[in-house]
């Protein structure tokens, strides 16, 4: 039985690198990196700027993924506050490019979002609660969510995680 094909953006980031190592035995993975490289036995790694819509589409067409986990983002909250245009490019425009590359395919998209789409005032949030981001990072991740949810087989995960990156910086 052949493995399902998984395309993972942000493969050298904190979440992406851990997903590579956790999922590589269960899926045929193509990992996309940009500024940092990663080596994972049994995984195809491609260096690609997700801002390059044409080459992203070519990679998606070549990989033919069953599932895409879009974990690439600018997740540094302070950096997003200091440079909102960069945050928009990283968290919204690149998501737009991923969605465009998947248009017309029967691929599932898992968009990694954040709990910072909520203002944090009430706590114990559920998906029934209305988002109300107060920082640029949360606002751009919510905008990215809305783009991602334009696909019929999309899921947005609003999460918060921490830990150690498996990739040296």
Structural notes for this entry:
- With 169 residues, this protein is α/β, with parallel strands linked by helices.
- It has 5 helices and 6 strands, in the order E-H-E-E-H-E-H-H-E-H-E.
- It has helices at residues 14-23, 53-63, 77-82, 84-102, 136-148; strands at residues 4-9, 27-33, 44-47, 67-70, 108-112, 154-157.
- A 6-stranded parallel β-sheet has the order 3-2-1-4-5-6, with helices on both faces.
- The radius of gyration is 16 Å and the shape is globular.
- It starts with a strand and ends in a 12-residue tail after the last strand.
Which structural traits does this protein have?
single chain, 169 residues, alpha/beta, 6-stranded parallel β-sheet, 35% helix
